[in-house]
Every structure is written in structure tokens, then in C-alpha cells.
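Example 3.2
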Amino acid sequence: MLARTVDLFRAIALAAAFGAQVYAANTDPLHSPECANARETLEAALAEPAQTHRDHPERLARARKQVADLCLGRMSGHPQRAGAPEPPIAVPAPAPFIELPRTAQARPPVTLPVPVPAAPRAAAITACDPAGCWDSNGQRLNNMGPLLLGPRGACVPLAGQATCP
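Structure, written as C-alpha cells:
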């Protein structure tokens, strides 16, 4: 029973495919007898040498136009010979252009570059007493426990030099 069903489906598929080919052959202008005749005429015009007839270029142009009209139809850009014309397509009118009033554009605020402070330079410690030390820049560095304090904050003493902010 299953084999008969499969055979039935195959027969239906073959019939549908054949019917589609027959339909395409009947509706496709490339497979029409008029197109075949026009192609044969064009091939004959292309095969003959140009020197045989004076009107060879004109005949060749006419044969090409006839093939385009009969075989390509609407795709050729020429009017189609058979069938009803397509109805016109309604195109909506474009929307009117409305120009908006121009306003003053806001400018971004001007930012000035921020100066980058120079890196602290190490100054040589020149003289010390129980309350603090003097450096080579003439600044007084006061003792605050193990630290030395300069006019702008704590200094880092290292190998006879002090680096202060």
C-alpha cells in the first residue's frame, strides 16, 4: 500500500512539473515560434558578410530590434506586441518641503588648557640643625618627627637630597 502511495505522489509531481514546463513554454515569449523565427533571421543577418549588401547595417539593426521585441517583450524597453497593457501605477505626490527657521547654534564653551605643574625637583640639603634643615634652593625644611616639612608639604629626604612638592 505504501509503495502505491509513493508511486501516486511521484506521478502527481511529474505531471505538475510537465504542466509547469508546458505553461512556461506557452507564456514565455522566448519559447514562442515568432521569437524562434526572429532569432533565425538575426543569425542569418549576422552570418552574411557586411560587403554583400549595402543595407547590411540597417537589416542587422532591424533584425536585432525584432528579436528584442518578440523575445524579450517588456524587458527590452520596447512595447510588447501581444497582451493587455499594464494599468498605470498611482504614485502619491511628494510631501511639501518645509524649511525650519534657523536658530543660533550653541557653541561649546571654550576650555583653556590647565597648566601641568612641573615635577618637583630634588634640592640638596646644605645645612641642618635640631629644628630642621636648609636646602640648596634656600627653603627651610622643618623637622616633624622623622619627616621634613617644606612650605608646600612633606618632603622626601634621600641620600643628602630632599624632594618637596
